[in-house]
Amino acid sequence: MSEPESKPPSQPLAERFKLFESINDVAISQTVEPDPLALKEGADLNKDYPESLSSVQQARDKAEIEQLSEGTRQTKLVNKARLIILASLFFIIALWIVSVVLLIIMVGFGIWGFTLSDKVIMTYVTTTTASVFGLFHIAARWLFSKD
Questions:
Q1: CA-based diameter of the chain, in Å?
Q2: What is the dihedral angle through the alpha carbons of 76, 81, 83, 87, rounded to the nearest 10 degrees?
Q3: CA distance 94 to 89
């Protein structure tokens, strides 16, 4: 199977030439701005950077420094918040432990006639100990997270 022959163009040659000239005029009329990163003719290649590259590099370095300083500032804020929360958590855990010790001393020596059943004391000591360890575990995982 052979391909059919192409038909001769229906437009005369002069019309096509006129069309190409108008396309060429439009292309020439559109100005192209030079690339600021392109090397200028006769540029000294021994320089580290051409002037335009140097300004771009300086802008990039400045942006990178700003980004790093913002990251450092946020890290400092997070660390301050962690220290405040850690101090508060330590205070709460210390109060819990002191309350357990005081309860046992008061029940053991019968101070001011204070008495509780053995089941109540065991429940209080067990739940308090579990809460302290659980809270400490949660805080430790948050303080020493992989992030």
A1: 121
A2: 170
A3: 9
